[in-house]
Request: fold
Amino acid sequence: MPVGTSFIMTVMALAAQGSHESERMTLLQISLAIPETGAAEYEKAMEEETAKITSCADGLKFIDGLKARVRHGSLSFTVKTDVAIATLPVPLSRALLARPIGKATPVFGGGEAFRVLVRCEPTFVAPRPAPSSRDGSAVATS
Reply:
């Protein structure tokens, strides 16, 4: 390969890599507080349910299904707008960029909660904030 060609390919690769640094997105985070017993069962249920998500709107619908399946009151979601990809931990930003928009990351977290993130479509409109309901669900936007 000629030297000029390899130089151009290197510059293009670096430009593509750097283009994500300024990228901003809307993220949906779904969180499930880890119960004192049966944590593995809840993590499995969350993994199975969130794997079905194909859009952020879908993610909001799946929360109800997850609530019914895990019967655990500490489920919440948050919509964050204008999040800079560079502000996220590298493994998390890679996981988000490696999957199509609308697909959930694998379940992560531990300690206090299991979580997934979904990179939302540009047309997604965040729901209006609502007060916490009596079943422990919460909604927040920013």
User: Anything to note?
Assistant: The two ends are 50 Å apart (CA to CA).
